Amino acid sequence: MTLLFYSIPLLFLLLYLGLYVFVISKREKVIENGKRIDLKDLTLIVPFRNEASNIDRIIHALHTQEKQPYEIIFVDDHSTDNTLSVLKNELIDSPLNVKLLHLEKDYGKKAAIRLALDHTETNYVLQWDADVVPGQNYFNNIQELFVRDMWVLPVVLRTTKGLLKYFQWDYLFIHALSYRMRKLKVLTASGANLLYNRKTYLNLLSKASGEEYLSGDDYFMLAVFQEHNKMIGVSAASSLAVETTLPTSLKLCLQQRLRWLSKSSWYELVGILLLAAINLYFLILILSFTTYGLGLFLLKTLIDIAYLREYTKAISKKDIYAVPLFFLILPFYFFVLFLASFILKKEWKGRELKKK
Q1: How far is residue 89 from each of residues 43, 55, 106, 112, measured CA to CA in Å?
Q2: What residues pair up with 126 in beta bridges, in sequence order?
Q3: pLDDT per residue as tens digits for the range 335-352
Q4: Which CATH number among 3.90.550.10, 3.20.20.70, 3.40.50.150, 3.40.50.10860 corresponds to the domain 39-247?
């Protein structure tokens, strides 16, 4: 029994390491297309709801850009605060080419995006959330990207203090893992910083699942783009990143994670549970206080860092050595999420996550 107990994690590590070696040795697909993104053929769309505390930052950031997209479309999803008045004040005498739209009959982020696409004149669309802030030369770098059907671009969570700080690590882990695995399959994308071909998006829209969700456009559209073998690029360049903030309370952080999990497929949920179980196993090994157990945990930590380092280095994330602590608390984190799923409502912007 003892032999089996110690053999299982060793077998896992060998498979884990083998997958890493396979991925880094696999050549990235070379797509023969030398055309780059033309800013004159790019529209920025920003759906928003109740973003009065954030919307001024995005306008200030756009004003500091050396170059601009052809047009910027803001879509109001029935805001009940003073976001509209803040936005209009910020745009007085602005040189930006801005269009402001309002959802009337429909509601939700996906509906806002579709309304913007109906009013878009360009072939390419860049989608942001209303609470992001781009780097100073963001659009200079966007025009250096080669044309693809979709570009998954990086989103960096601003560091917070205290317990909430660790909520950035689950987000960072899945995006770093997705970046490392991109040669096989892109695992995730964020609608806070997503670029795509408008015609391809609209052609595949009816084939995407998750119609009942108010949000999740990024997750479901990435899936359908991959199902139809579209050209997808993934970048981790800090010059193409936008920054955003974590939700401001533990409750809001948990609700955000529950929204993400609710859109996952059954096999993704199985993978998440397996990940939690594996890390619980290694936690038990550490508590055994044996040289063998500690050695296996050290080996796993080194492999974890190898998986994450390429992405964290690219986005200039320096606290990668917090990885061991993150994985140690991961089983408890998922247990808290499990309990929260019975207590907290799955809401998005003050609404039920699914349309009725």
Answers
A1: 22, 11, 26, 22
A2: 44, 195
A3: 887 787 777 776 666 666
A4: 3.90.550.10
Pairing of strands 124-128, 42-48: parallel
Residue 83 · residue 52 · CB < 8 Å: yes
- Pairing between strand 232-234 and 150-152? parallel
Cα separation of 221 and 197, whole Å? 12
Confidence of residue 283 (pLDDT cuts 50, 70, 90): confident
Question: Per residue in 198-241, pLDDT tens?
Answer: 999 999 887 776 565 556 678 788 888 999 999 999 999 999 99
**Per-residue confidence at 355, pLDDT binned at 50, 70, 90?**
low
**Which tokens in the block code for residue 35?**
């055309």
Taking the C-alpha atoms of residue 103 and residue 9, their distance in angstroms, rounded to an integer, is 53
Q: Which two tokens stand for residue 257?
A: 């994670």
Distances (CA, A) of 32 to 29, 35, 87, 118: 10, 9, 42, 30
150-152, strands of its sheet edge to edge = 98-102, 71-76, 42-48, 124-128, 193-197, 150-152, 232-234
| Helices 167-180/291-314 angle, 10° precision | 80
Say if CB 214 and CB 221 are below 8 A apart: no
Lowest mean pLDDT, pick from 83-87, 196-200, 278-282: 278-282
Cα 345 from chain centroid (whole Å) = 22
Output the pLDDT for position 161: 67
C-alpha–C-alpha distance, residues 48 and 261, integer Å: 22
Tokens of 184: 């096989």
Could you give the residue range(s) of every CATH 3.90.550.10 domain in the chain?
39-247
Q: In Å, how far are 73, 275, 286, 356 from 171, measured between CA atoms? A: 28, 15, 25, 29
Q: What is the pLDDT of the chain when averaged over all its residues?
A: 84
How far is CA 136 from each of CA 1, 30, 58, 67, 330, rounded to the nearest angstrom?
59, 30, 12, 10, 35
Cβ 51 vs Cβ 83: under 8 Å: yes
